[in-house]
């Protein structure tokens, strides 16, 4: 790959010493190590930016799903609505998904809280 124009820059002494030490250890020119470090930093910055975009898109999707779920749950418990047509399979599926996301520790806390409130915790092995 052809090189661009020559740059003049100042580094902190500690950074310069580390780069020079690495160059000497590897037996290459100081400038080669510096170019590699800049390339690596730019690659890493691009990967981090791509990861952030993916995370933002994922969180946006989760927020939309949370709003849909909240709306659906509200419609199930709305007073005076009569039969909402809620599918028991959907409620069961939602319960199983939430249990899988919660993990054992949180599930135990939820069970203890339900018992404290006088409710019987759900057990899929003994429905």
List the helices and strands and how they pair.
Layout: H1 13-26, H2 30-77, H3 88-116
Protein model, in words:
The protein has 127 residues and is an all-alpha fold. The chain is 72% helix and 0% strand. The protein has 3 helices and no strands. The chain starts with 12 loop residues before the first helix and ends in an 11-residue tail after the last helix. 0% of the residues are buried. The mean pLDDT is 79.
Report how far the terminal alpha carbons are from each other. 67 Å
Mean pLDDT: 79
| Percent range of helical residues | over 70%
Please state the structural category: mainly alpha
Q: Give the radius of gyration.
A: 29 Å
Morphology: elongated
Number of helices: 3
Compressed to H and E, one letter per element, the order equals HHH
